Amino acid sequence: MTNHFTDYRNADVILIIGSNTAENHPMGMKWAMKAKEKGAKLIAVDPRASKSASMCHVHARLRPGTDIAFVNGMIHYIIENDLWFKEYVLNYTNASFLLNPGYKCDEGIFSGLTETDGKLSYDTSTWQYQMEGEEIKKDPTLQDPNCVFQVLKRHVSRYDIKTVCQITGTPEDTYRKVCEMYAASGKRDKAGCVIYGMGITMHSVGTQNARSICILQLLLGNMGIPGGGVNAQRGEQNVQGSTDMAMLNHYLPGYLGMIYAAKHKNLAQYLEVETPKTGYWSNKPKFLISQLKAWFGEKATKENDFCYDWLPKHDGKNRSYMSLFNYMDEKKIKGFIVAGQNPSVGGPSTVQANQAMENLDWLVVLDIFEIETAAFWQRPGADPSKIKTEVFLLPAAMSFEKEGSLTNAGRWVQWRYKAVNPLGEAKSDLWIVHNLFKTIRKEYEKGGKFPEPILNMVWDYDKPGEEEPDIHKVAAEINGYEVATQKVLPGFAKLADDGSTACGNWVLSGYWAEDPEAKVPACQRRINRDPSGLGVFPQYAFSWPANRRIAYNRCSADPAGNPWNPNKPYMRWDAAAGKWITPDVPDFKATEPAPEPGADPIPVPPEKSAVDAFIMSEDGHGRLFAVKGLSDGPLPEHYEPFESPFRNLISKQQNNPMALTFKSGIFSNLAEIGSEKYPCVAITVHVVEHYQSGATTRNCPSLAEISAHMFVNISPDLAQSIGVKNGEDVIVESARGQITCKAAVNGVCIPLTVNGKKTEMISMPYSWGFKGLTTGASANDLTPSVGDPNSNIPEYKAFLCNVRKAKKS
Ligand SMILES: Nc1nc2c(c(=O)[nH]1)N[C@H]1C(S)=C(S)[C@@H](COP(=O)(O)OP(=O)(O)OC[C@H]3O[C@@H](n4cnc5c(=O)[nH]c(N)nc54)[C@H](O)[C@@H]3O)O[C@H]1N2
Ligand SMILES: Nc1nc2c(c(=O)[nH]1)N[C@H]1C(S)=C(S)[C@@H](COP(=O)(O)OP(=O)(O)OC[C@H]3O[C@@H](n4cnc5c(=O)[nH]c(N)nc54)[C@H](O)[C@@H]3O)O[C@H]1N2
Ligand SMILES: [Mo]
């Protein structure tokens, strides 16, 4: 999230798209409802009549997987009707930047598509700006046909209301209402907030879905202001924290790009290739070198590249979730450690994934319960005598049974304390990893291949007299410290690239520094004070980076430093006093250190920061057109989901050409376009009564009782046509599997008329499996193994099924 939950109350209009905030992020919905109480308009864009949709003024249904058409159409409407925020767009976005005249988008394919060894990729040279020496060429009149604004205008011109509604199935009058209502936020004193979730991300175009939202928000001047923002509902309590700590194969902690063997031979080369010359990321060497110091301590010196050679290097192959299972199927992976995840239920194509796991020599599961994954060898239909995988189940302590930090979707890092002792032999994950590492190190002391990194890694978390390792020591290392004194650093501004500082994760730097008033580390403080009345609460928890609550906040004021909305001033240049007045940590250079030591910093006047208000971006501007960072195009373009009843109406290109797919093998099964066998468009969702794969909630007696049966939402029309009543069993089948569940016949899903054709939608939770107090079929037996090329997230939310009545047994 660029903003944060309590900030929702500052919005004048909220667009909830692909998120069921009321069920899945109820504390977020609370603040959206505060905005509603104050007169804000709420819009839901969702195929289903979700609980969130029922709380909104307008609910636009759409066919799953058509959000780019939906949002590009809104962008088109805003440009056509001249509703964009001109002063903001001109100053803070790249609208006026001139692009290479060779750029084009033709029939859904962008310029530069190349094929090498059967693999597609984009050569992005035509997606770049025109340069004059070091300067980007611009046309502030926005008339040049190659300027970003004109290119965007042409790109979205195909997305007129009629075409959009033919694709999405949204009734035209509802669509028009959404456009009007949301575009009203493009005024100086109005704020529009987008809340999005898994309905946006879980598609073969998930990242471009999110991009279209960014463009919408930039055009309306909704970034960096209170009540604005692009706000991903990040999901389970610490998914943001795990992403920050790099639970992803292509990052080191703190979003430092992974080290690839082929292009980063040594530290100098990594830093040369990966460090932009301008923007905040130009500090990258400080972040990486401090990270190496945190990991290898005094062994890491300038002379030995701070032990860069000891880090594992990525081989450039796809190492994300779906590919791992494909490698298991190909017998290329022998051992698998699963910590706090239930892939046998939660991942896509579980029939095939469970089958692939049978090829493992060993499997280690760290969990609270004996989950389906740990018991995959005894799942219904499997023959345990034929499965040779050795399974180890290590009982883990739950969050209430141990201490540690959690980071919420609004980037607030908060400390949690242990409430009760773990049951039985259960241990904290830190204890398990700590002891695993120490045991492995002992083995390496006897010899082994390349022992140096293991033998020399800083690992001093033992706490004398206690069984549990010292988690405060871990926290201090993540925060960063001065090497000479071991003193905890106040924040990442103090990080150096000469080995004098160590820091495990630069974005979190400062979270462990003491709050002088609360006398506890920043992430532990709970000072409930909001001096500005805008929900900032600067001394409540720690918001990364640098305790900044709203990102890009320079954009809340005009170039001269006057707040766009005088009623909700965020950043304000007080010309008389010659300084910035602000309730938040500025996301720009607001002061400069004084030349004489000890003197107060000197305020920097607004004009200086106005030229690079988006400080994290190399060119300092919000990108309507993404010159880099995306593998599938600089602008969002509608492609159909990989399983779809329809041909693409926008171009000849049916699907995202860059998507992650498996061309052969057990993960390659897909229904054909317009399949008569599988006519219904299916989505899977999260529900309030269960938690994700259901491992925890199906083991909780009260929740298992409240929601005891796997179900599918079908429309009354569909129920009638297949002769099924509410509560009766149906079989839902896809190209990958079939499951039996109870029919929930109601108005949650109703058929949409898509390009003149009545199209049934169905929706299922994915929270059941064969273990626990209530058991039931897993929706993921049906889902495809196709993914977004940037995030590699599976297309869980648009696939084809057929539904028929189950025979009574
Ligand atoms: N009680 C409870 N709370 C939870 C969870 C839980 O399992 N149970 N899980 C947590 C986690 S990890 C996460 S990630 C979040 C998930 O929370 P959400 O992001 O809200 O996820 P979903 O319920 O999967 O989907 C959200 C909405 O997207 C809609 N949708 C589906 N396809 C499309 C589409 O193509 N376009 C649009 N516009 N909408 C679409 C669905 O109908 C649904 O209403 O919740 C978190 N909170
Ligand atoms: N079809 C479909 N599939 C989906 C989704 C969807 O919308 N549709 N949503 C996806 C999303 S957003 C998510 S986040 C995933 C979630 O998928 P999973 O992460 O596989 O699901 P969970 O049930 O949350 O599994 C977490 C496991 O961790 C255990 N656990 C809890 N606390 C601890 C702890 O402190 N330590 C340890 N070691 N274990 C612990 C729990 O008992 C549980 O078994 O599912 C994804 N799968
Ligand atoms: Mo999630």
UniProtKB/TrEMBL annotation:
GO terms, molecular function:
4 iron, 4 sulfur cluster binding; electron transfer activity; formate dehydrogenase (cytochrome-c-553) activity; formate dehydrogenase (NAD+) activity; molybdenum ion binding; molybdopterin cofactor binding
Subcellular localization is given as:
Cell envelope
Mind telling me which PANTHER family this protein's record contains?
FORMATE DEHYDROGENASE-O MAJOR SUBUNIT (PTHR43598:SF1), TUNGSTEN-CONTAINING FORMYLMETHANOFURAN DEHYDROGENASE 2 SUBUNIT B (PTHR43598)
What are the coiled-coil residue ranges?
A: none
Query: Could you provide one GO biological process annotation from this protein's UniProt record?
Result: anaerobic respiration
Enumerate the spans annotated as Molybdopterin oxidoreductase domain.
Answer: 2-438
> GO CC annotations?
cell envelope
What protein name does the entry list? Answer: Nitrate reductase
Q: Where is the Molybdopterin dinucleotide-binding domain?
A: 683-799
Q: What is the lineage of its organism?
A: Bacteria, Bacillati, Bacillota, Clostridia, Eubacteriales
Q: What is its EC number?
A: 1.7.99.4
Keywords on record: 4Fe-4S, Iron, Iron-sulfur, Metal-binding, Oxidoreductase, Periplasm
Q: Which cofactor does it need?
A: [4Fe-4S] cluster
Highest taxon listed in the record's lineage: Bacteria
**What CDD domains does the record tag this protein with?**
MopB_CT_Formate-Dh-Na-like
Q: What is its main location?
A: other
Q: Which family does it belong to?
A: Belongs to the prokaryotic molybdopterin-containing oxidoreductase family.
